[in-house]
Write the structure tokens for this entry.
Amino acid sequence: MANTKYPRVFTNLLQVSDAYRSGSAHLADLKAAVWNAVQSIVAVDELETRTILQRLEGELDMIEFTVDENKVFESSLAIVGELEKLARSFL
């Protein structure tokens, strides 16, 4: 999957993911970064990537609204891992 038209988008996702893991960014910041990535990716050949990002953002929404507040961070880490793996595959 390497070689993307959007290296800044994926670099930003990794930076926000790192900030979220370290506690210097909130879930809303992470969701905004994913949403911005979805909006930035417009190439037809990367439609699948956009769809994956939309799914992951939706999963973060589900966690935010269905999991106890004190368990949101822990519950979201698997999705953060998927985001990071996806972003790294393009860099």
About this structure: DSSP finds four helices and no strands in the chain. The mean pLDDT is 95.
